Each structure stands twice: as structure tokens, then as C-alpha cells.
Amino acid sequence: MEVHKNMGLKMEMTQNTVLSQKMIQSAQILQMSSSELDTYIKELALENPMVDLEEPGMVSSQEDDWRRKLEWLSATDEQNRVYYSSDGFAQEKDAWNFSADEGEALADYLMSQLVGSTYTKEEMEVLNYMALCLDSKGYFSEDLQEISHRFAMPVDRVEELLSVLQGLEPAGAGARNLKECLILQLDRQKIYDRTVREIVENHLELLGKNQLNTIAKKLKIPVEEVGRAARVIKALNPKPGSGFSSREHLKYITPDVVIVRLGGYYEILLNEGTYPKMALNSYYLNLLKEDASRETRDYVQEKVRQAQWVMDCISQRSHTLMNVTKAIIDAQSRFFADGPDYLRPMKLENIAERLNVHESTVSRAVRDKYLQCSWGIFPLNYFFSKGIAVRRELSAVTQDAVKKHIREIIDQENKEKPLSDRLIAQALDDRGIHISRRTVAKYREQEGIKDAGGRKMFD
């Protein structure tokens, strides 16, 4: 009897272990991004002969159906045209909206200006190498001695070729530091103002801190003259490479969910064409019907169960993603109707309660997934933000909304007497938003806004 009990206990423990592994796998698939799921399915197909992946032509047919539905919805609603036209994408300015066309690379643009030049093949190789070495700002930071050694070319000639690169458009590209970048631009524009040059050569740090009075004392000139020179310098471009694409940070975003407004409701479309569709291999299924050996039948059945479970998990992933998106639309209806300014505070637990699921399920469902609507492309976790306390008669606001209020207050201030963080906090308090001076400073810095001293303007 004792032996039978132990055997029963062992069988029960094994069953629980298998169930736990399946639940872990289901959770992992739920939180996968589209690219991760694509890789996972393809790797599974390599190790499991039961898995067939649809041919690209069949997948494109699925995508065509999806796109045709978008076109039909777009034709019925003027607002929807913004979602899918290339012009609409180009016009989006939201920080989360990514353009599919990142533009021409700086190195390519520079080298295109040398087409037809009389430089030797070796010199063109050095020029191309240096152009590719420029960072995202357009600066050159490589050691000329190393380039000289790499290409067996005298260092003096390498430096001359760098000057050639610096003589191309945009002005300032190829500079080795900020000072050289600005001087190259002043030379190009034939600006030889003594004060401007002196500040660029020796007082850029003070200018960055907006300490015009200190510069005036050092140069023994009126602060108004320093202010005039500062305006000339600030009109220059400290990052001449910023208008070009960067190979280091090139990133394409494909939305997992598309929201289309149709009359009085929203259509939710899951973009399931970003990963291959799975099917069971008919050849191995037929083996189960034939008089195959028990070993073969057991093997095929195990692989079928594995493939079917993954297919079920992917289907459940789509179902959960659809439900979470519906709940987000319901909770953030003002956002989808009127724009990002109307994003309201929301927590994961709010959506979990709506769907009667665990908070971790919602967290996994939104991880690394993107939503496209008329206001741009947003990561799904963008819609979850903490609220800031306000007056009792007002609703809580998000951090982004508070930052917008801070920008408005600063835009309206007297630039000759800019507001301190303490005064900004008081102005926010007048609007019913209660945050500390330190929080104001943190949000201001996150927005790239200088402190009162840095914003002060001199006539």
C-alpha cells in the first residue's frame, strides 16, 4: 500500500510541473514583442517538424485583407486619412511617432558633394572613412595619427583632407569640438565680429550658463554688446549632423494595434501580419492515421501537443491584447477623441480590475507593444501614468500635463526677470496643481528648460 501511495504522489507532482511549465510559456508568449514572437515561431519551426509556417505570399494576402479594411474605414471617416497616408505620418510631431523614412545619412550627403572631384582613389577612401567616423552631431573625434597609419598616408595630408571635409555642407560638419564647429560656421558666413569671435574662442562655458554680465566684465564692454554677440552665436548650429539619419539609432516601429475611429466608436485592428502564421504539418498528421510504430506515434503526438499549445498561446495573446486595448480606449476616451493633452492618470490595476485579471497579465500584455492612432504611434505603457494631486474640485493630472503647464508658465514669463522654480511652483498652485519646488526643477530639467539664470535675456 505504501508503494502505491508513493507512486500516486509522484504522478501528481509530475502533472503539476508540466502545468506550471505551460503557464510559464504562456506568460512568456504574452509579453513577447512582435519581433520576439517572430523569432520564437521560426526557431520552434526548426526544432518541431509538426510546425509549418505560411509562405510569404500567403502572409501578404493576410496583410492585404488588413490593409483593405483600413482603406475602407479610412474612406468612411475623414479623420482616419491621417492614420495611413505618408503625408500624415510625415506631419506627426509627437515624440513617440517614428517616420519610416529616416532621410539621408550625413556621410552619404558629404560624399555626394565630392562626386567628380580630382582626388585619388586612396584620398577618396580616407575622406569616406572620416565621413563615416562622424558622430550623430556631425563631429569628428578620431585620431589623425591612427588614420595616417591605417592608410599609410602622411598625417599632414590626412589633416588637409579633414579640412576638405570641413569645407562641405553643412557648415560645421567634421569639426573636432564645439568651438571649431562654430568657428567654421562663422568663417563660412564671413562673420568677423571681434566680440563674437572672442566669446567663441574663450567664453563658451560662460555663454552656456547665460552669464553675460561676467563676460562683459571680462571683455570690459557693455552687457548689451555681449547680448548682441550672444544672439549671433546662438543662431549658429552646434549640431550640424542632427538633421541627418543616424545608423546608430535607426529604429523602425511597427504598431501591434491600430485604432480607427468609425462614426461613434473605435475599430481595433491587431497587426498579426508581423509574424508568420503557424499550421500543423499534414504529412506527420497522416502518420497518426497510418499503422506507424508506437514510438513514432508517441513522438508525433508529443510534437502536435507542443505546437498546438503554442498556437493556443498566440491566440490567447491576441485575445488579451484586444481586451486590454478596449479597456484602454474606454478609460482614455478623451485622449483618443481630443489628443495627448487629455491623457488621464491610470494604473495597471485599473485595467486589471476592468478585465478581472491579475495586474501582471496587463503588464505582460503591454510590454514592448505599440499602438497607432490619429495622434501618432505610442508604446502601450504610455497610457499608464501616475496622477498629480490637484484641488478637490479638479481631476488629477498626469506628469505630462504638469510639464505642459510649466512650459506655458515659462513661455509667458518676463524674460528679463524669469521665474525661479519656487515662483513656478506658486503659479502651478494657483492653477490647482500642488508640487514642490524640487519637483518643478526635476520636470523642468526633463523638458530641457534652463533655470531662471539660464533663461534671462539682456537687451
Topology (SSEs and partners):
Layout: H1 2-31, H2 34-47, E1 51-53, H3 56-76, H4 81-84, H5 86-91, H6 106-112, H7 121-133, H8 144-151, H9 155-166, H10 178-188, H11 194-202, H12 204-208, H13 212-219, H14 223-234, E2 257-262, E3 265-270, E4 278-280, H15 282-289, H16 294-331, H17 333-338, H18 348-355, H19 359-366, E5 370-373, E6 376-379, E7 387-388, E8 397-398, H20 399-411, H21 421-430, H22 437-446, H23 452-455
Parallel strand pairs: 2-5
Antiparallel strand pairs: 1-4, 2-3, 5-6, 7-8
Class inferred from helices and paired strands: alpha+beta
Name the strands of the widest sheet in spatial order: 3-2-5-6
Radius of gyration, whole Å: 31 Å
Main sheet makeup: 4 strands, mixed
Strand content: 5-15%
The end-to-end distance, rounded to whole angstroms, is 99 Å
- Unreliable spans: 1-15, 56-61, 74-102
Number of DSSP helical runs? 23
Name a few traits of the molecule.
disordered N terminus; two-stranded antiparallel sheet; 459 residues; 58% helix; flat; alpha+beta; 4-stranded mixed β-sheet
